[in-house]
Amino acid sequence: MNDTILLAHGSGGKLSHDLIEKRLLPSLTNPMLNKLDDSAIFQASGYLAFTTDSYIVSPIFFPGGDIGKLAVYGTVNDLSMNGAKPLYLSLSLIVEEGFPLSEFDHVVRSIKAAAEEAEVDIITGDTKVVNRGQVDKLFINTSGIGVIPFGIDISGANAKVGDKVILSGTIGDHGIAIMSQREGLKFSTPVESDCAPLNKLVAQMLESSSRIHCLRDPTRGGLATTLNEFARQSNMGIVIEEDKIPIKEGVKAACELLGFDPVYVANEGKLVAVVEPDDADKILAQMKQNNYGREAAIVGEVTNKHPGRVIMRTKLGHSRIVDMLSGELLPRIC
Amino acid sequence: MNDTILLAHGSGGKLSHDLIEKRLLPSLTNPMLNKLDDSAIFQASGYLAFTTDSYIVSPIFFPGGDIGKLAVYGTVNDLSMNGAKPLYLSLSLIVEEGFPLSEFDHVVRSIKAAAEEAEVDIITGDTKVVNRGQVDKLFINTSGIGVIPFGIDISGANAKVGDKVILSGTIGDHGIAIMSQREGLKFSTPVESDCAPLNKLVAQMLESSSRIHCLRDPTRGGLATTLNEFARQSNMGIVIEEDKIPIKEGVKAACELLGFDPVYVANEGKLVAVVEPDDADKILAQMKQNNYGREAAIVGEVTNKHPGRVIMRTKLGHSRIVDMLSGELLPRIC
Asked: Which residues in chain A touch residue B135, judged by CB atoms under 8 angstroms apart?
């Protein structure tokens, strides 16, 4: 029984302190976290971004990542989508009694590696343990704080007529990776989750142009949902070209097999940018220099026709409305 | 089925937006939250405090409160314990498929009322839905940001020899309220949870003296665990007097019946302060003016004997070591 999480690890007492001091601090160490006060203290000034996300993905280990990596990158990306430079994360774990300590350690190592890649510090945290059967293995919440450089104003409400829509790479990788793992599907080319930190890509985009109007990572609900959010928030229409949207062969095949429309499938390492038309090529060229933007493409543009609606021009030359996802494609995707 | 949470409420798509726009925004409305971007943006400067906590309490409704109230006050209190003025919270909900919408609305109303009492805004959030049986009803994470007034330096590591230990009121109320509800125990005087926001109490204490060295709310693990944390972090000893510790008759009776030591039972509206001896009476008098400090008392002092250890002088005149809680008294208490 000593190699699993016990209820007493969540007691606030001796075993809680052991878990923190022996299994969390050694990996995540930094002066702010190490103080172990009720809050962490940091100095800041200017415009700050604040975000939160709970991660409930099942299975917790999947091709291309795990829940720990996802929890760090997901929150780093949410901050980045306001143009913020992510600085600090909180980490809150809800663990099922009986969860193997070896898997706990694996997730903590993943969190450490992900935080290092994204150059953020985890400065405050919390661990709760729930009785067996009352939570499925491990849920993670990360909240994050970032600083917004002077002059940046990015919002889903800022799309203007004529703006170009840039997508940073292939769609649907994360959703199909989770689905395949969950259902034991095998494809000739295995699909891996795209989960990745996008903060440096965003920083480079902002260096190349100050006229980036909207940014968002199309996670749950996929590309279609993000574009619909922009269309609604900005009260503009958006037209996208199906044949411009990058998609991996394996993802396309899986979607056909499973009856999914890839524009609704979740991504965890992609972004959609709505940018000033004159700067679009420059931004695109810059994105292609970054490992996470290599396959970026201009996929559409903003129009004042059909405000609030997204239209796709299909490969066959037809137009169809791409609505927000209704119903649930795949629960527990992130 | 329309009166319960569906998996599609967590899809990121249409029903997610409905849930947010119809059931969360109307209650929690403020300009930062209403923007619905991936992060909320606020302006700040100076020293900020950042904290996180996940709430998994069972049952979610209990005498004196519910999980929503607890989630707001708990995080407000964690910020306050660094001397910070709480400003902003994030709110992340993990809901079980099939959870009644009426109970969801009840919790949201509670969150709204609690945020109003504590004068904090919820500026960013996230909602996930998990399949039936994979989470127990509802878990909530709140993270919080506060600003630390100039010159404040409060930490569990700051206790000095001779400092007085002040407790803000009776101990064990929250733990016994949860336990009674869970086990269907009836006492002649029903015990209610003490869950309450302590930020105004702390602000008043700080107005009366700048020499408050440590502050912490004794939640999981109770008074004993908090005092042990101070003793360890400050490398000092602490001596407390059993007969000075305020405790309700009902809590005392329940603890005797259940075999609990009240110093280990959780509180959700109490604080422990370690203060400069010369200022102790002044601070105490100030605390008694506040509704949440009416029964405050000086319960002990800091010594350089037995560093890292807490000793209690019992009513019978003996001394005993009060160690950190080992094992688990009561799972899912907060």
From this structure: 56, 134-136, 139
